[in-house]
TrEMBL record:
<dbReference type="Pfam" id="PF03816">
    <property type="entry name" value="LytR_cpsA_psr"/>
</dbReference>
<protein>
    <submittedName>
        <fullName>LytR family transcriptional regulator</fullName>
    </submittedName>
</protein>
<dbReference type="InterPro" id="IPR050922">
    <property type="entry name" value="LytR/CpsA/Psr_CW_biosynth"/>
</dbReference>
<feature type="transmembrane region" description="Helical">
    <location>
        <begin position="79"/>
        <end position="100"/>
    </location>
</feature>
<dbReference type="InterPro" id="IPR004474">
    <property type="entry name" value="LytR_CpsA_psr"/>
</dbReference>
<keyword id="KW-0472">Membrane</keyword>
<feature type="compositionally biased region" description="Polar residues">
    <location>
        <begin position="31"/>
        <end position="47"/>
    </location>
</feature>
<feature type="domain" description="Cell envelope-related transcriptional attenuator">
    <location>
        <begin position="158"/>
        <end position="299"/>
    </location>
</feature>
<feature type="compositionally biased region" description="Low complexity">
    <location>
        <begin position="59"/>
        <end position="72"/>
    </location>
</feature>
<comment type="similarity">
    <text>Belongs to the LytR/CpsA/Psr (LCP) family.</text>
</comment>
<feature type="region of interest" description="Disordered">
    <location>
        <begin position="20"/>
        <end position="72"/>
    </location>
</feature>
<keyword id="KW-1133">Transmembrane helix</keyword>
<keyword id="KW-0812">Transmembrane</keyword>
Amino acid sequence: MTDLDDDLDWLYRRGRYADGSAAAPGADLSAQPTRRTPSPAVASQTRPAPRPRPVQASAPTRPVRAPRPATTGRRRRRWPLLVIGLLLLGLVGFVVYAVAVPMQAWSQMKHVAYVPDGNRPADQPGTLLLLTGSDSREGLTPEQKQKYGTGVEGANAADTIMLLYMPPSGRPALISIPRDSYVQIPGRKMNKINAAFSIGGPKLLTQTIEQNTGLRIDGYLSIGFGGFVTLIDSIGGIEQCPAYDIKDQDSHLDLKKGCQLMDGITALNYVRMRHADPLGDLGRVQRQRGMVAAVAKKVVTPTLLLDPGKYAATNKAGAAVLKAGEGTGLGEIAPAALAFLAISKGDGLTLTVPVSNPNLSTPAGSSVEWDKAKAAEMFAMVAKGDTAGLEKFKK
């Protein structure tokens, strides 16, 4: 029984076989290694603790972008650099063209001496230009003289005398000097101011104006009969609006009142006419200023730049018909054109030297007498470089 019980204990792992260390009954202990099966309690104590799994580094997270604001309309298209470069190149070319054309044309302009000798008034702030329109027939054929109604001979007098003043700041002023103004001519007796031009040309006229105004002339521009006609025709005529019917035999003028387009010949006769004007010489200076402003408004315009042929022709015509004083160039002409444009738009002043008697009887004939006190006040304002106070002289 003992052996049977022992076998059963081995089979069912009881008694001494409970831990699995004892050999089977009848086994050769010398030939087999002893194997022990640890009990669950012992195994749990002897089993090495599991190694902790290594923590894997998480992949870097991308920054969360803020949502784009909702846009209305189309997305702005990014222009390629090539397109921008071409636009800049075109802009530079346009500027060069706009500057080079007048520079080339005006470099051919004729120049005359106008600066007088001797003492001159002190220089005032800004720029003061003397503008004259003479009755010179230079370059006109006998047929043109008859067509223009200028007569065969002329006294080479200054039919138009104006001062264009461009202050350092403020509004420009265009001041008309009546051609029949009775003044002292340097080195000579009292006479009409246009006689100074007939006697001594631009130099004596400049000296006469400087002596009677106390202002210093900084530049000079002049145009004759033929040049005036050519200039007006080159820009396709000019619109003027006579307030009354005009029929004047001396200027060969026959016009109905109202706005109308005038060609060069009609415009010339219109600004020369004075006998049929109720205001005489004073009415003529008003029409002259209106004509100058109208020409500037038509010539100094961006649309002219868009027509290369017309732009070149206008500059060429202007340079051909005008005479400038020595030292008077594009640097003075370009600002003058802008000043005329401002005046034509109402951003400048148009004035006449104050007059006390428009029909003064003198040895030189019917003349215009200045209001000496008011004229002196006007010229003093210009001498100070201030045009704000000139409004009081505007009529």
